[in-house]
Amino acid sequence: MIRLTVQTGPETGLTLESDKGSVSLGKAPSNHLVLTDRYVSRYHGQILWDGIRYVYIDLHSSNGSALRRGGRVMPVDLEQNFQIRLENGDFILLGDRENPTVVCVEWTPPREADKGAPFADAEEPAIEVRDRTDVSAWKTIEGALSADARAVTGLYRLGRILTDLKEGASPDSLFEALAEALFDTFPSATHVMVAEASQTESGSSDRAAVRLKMQRCRNGTAGSADEEILFSRSLIRKALCERRGFLFSACGGGALAGGASAEPESVARAHISSSLLVPFGLDEDKKLVLQVDNRSGDGQFTLRDLEILTVYSVHASQIENLYRRLNALADDKRALKAENVRLQLQIRTPTAKPEEIVGVSRAMQTLFGLLERVADLPTTVLIEGETGTGKELVARALHYNSRFRKGPFVAVNCAALPETLLESELFGHRKGAFTGAQEDKRGLFELADGGTLFLDELGEMAHSTQTRLLRVLEDGVFRRLGEERERRVSVRVIGATNKHLKEEVANGRFRQDLYYRLSSLLLSIPPLRARREDIPPLCSHLTRKISEKLGIPSGGLTREALEALERYDFPGNVRELENILEGAIAQAGGRPLRVEDLPVHLRLSAVEPSELRAAVPTSWEELKEMKEALWLDLEKRFVAHWLEKSKGVVTAAAKGAGVKRSQFHQLIAKTGLDPDRFR
Hints:
It contains 23 helices and 24 strands. The protein is an alpha+beta fold. The protein folds into four domains: 1-114, Tumour Suppressor Smad4 (Sandwich); 119-347, 2-Layer Sandwich (Beta-Lactamase); 348-524, Rossmann fold (3-Layer(aba) Sandwich); 608-679, no CATH class. A six-stranded antiparallel β-sheet has the order 2-1-11-10-7-8, with no helix packed on it. Strands 14-13-12-17-16-15 form a six-stranded antiparallel β-sheet, sandwiched between helices. The longest helix has 45 residues, at 303-347.
């Protein structure tokens, strides 16, 4: 016995007592407890006896349900699988959250005779599915829900599917769980299928293209190909044309509920003795049909089974819709993250144009002419130059003055990332590919698709990564880490290095085939000491740029300051010049830069060592700078000596000097000497 008393709303004071194992609540007249509150859905909820106690199930109502127990309010939502067990004295809250309709529940266990089929005497409902959310199409949904105790078990299974869905279930696992629930619910079922039909251009369902989206056998699992399980397209098309579920029985010449007949060939070929089919899905282009077959000949389905399958189809369609929405949200999230990464990579450095690369020297004019000729070619480019010469600026000029400018410009420093992380950054990875791979990740090649990928410090790349890079450059295809699927991209690759890659190839540290592939177009940026005539225009350009950045008026440079800069070798090239000018402008505060504003080591670099040794420092800071200048002079003469002896071969020079090759390279960079000058 269950007693429902309406506490608030238009029906306040209304009481319903029932011995049935199922009670429905909602606005529709067919409900046991009819509630006219405008916020209550037509079929809002269902109270079912599960063999131990009553359970309240929210039938995916528009405004939801909640349960008040003592001072605690619990929503009946996805977290609860849209169902909750009832205790005596609970209050069900329906509709509007601020002003709900409240129903008090008091109960004792129902009589045994009423637990199994509480609507045994009810009129058989006419089952017609117009729309997957049009629950009003059933005369008595409560009859379908409680027609068999197995239906209750099925509803719990669907609740578990929803729980799995929250945790990221795949379509295969969703259909697998649905098939298991249907096999448990229908003991005589041998096959479960979900068919997908695509509408023709004329919109006719009787000619729709049909394929099996899911197919399962009771004693095994079939794949996704249509040929693996024979099926009758005529039955599926009938369900689509009539937009209603129906029961087919081979007894009596293949008659269908409703008086039609099926094409005997397809039914006989599939050995279908009895079949239940219910269409569902809102998509205008694609419709789904849920089908349960008996192909053993020893069991026939009934109209009551059709009612139960109709309930399954409605809930299954809602689960599938929720799955699609969650997937769409996940895709949107991944797309937004990728776009955010792409934009951050793109705005790291301002857009570069050839006119923003300053230089009047013959070497730079030659470079400008080459940039203009090759910018629009899809050829892979290798840029060589010392640290600070502006390799990325040249790469951006190539990108933004080419046909690739509409795509992204993505830059990565290969030396800044360890080997495993660099591979993941470049090629992406699949969820679970390695420890810490919590989700699928797109690599920089995918982010740069249609644009340019700039690989700075390319000479630091590990051999395994070089091999994968060569494959992309040759074929345009790659695989994410942990993935079998090949992906294709259209990306222009620009590499840059401050090393002599020919020497790296000779020493086995860089792949020869990759070097040849990269160096099909080689651009060399000369160091600043080799083009001292560029220092005055660079100073003019950089002082304006720095003044705008700092908000300090530019007073220019005195002749003495400019001459001191022109005498300096700039081992750090243009980057070092920019840093020196920034510090001097900040110190000058708007007046013209004087020699005194420049760093001591730069001023002392123009002084002859003999004069420097005779000079007397007047401050601690000047003493330190003089020591550094003298030490730099010694290092410079040391490096020059060994480069001259080895005829410019760095490896031989390092070996003769008794230092590691990497240390000798650091000395070369520090002193600003060019090994090519000694060859």
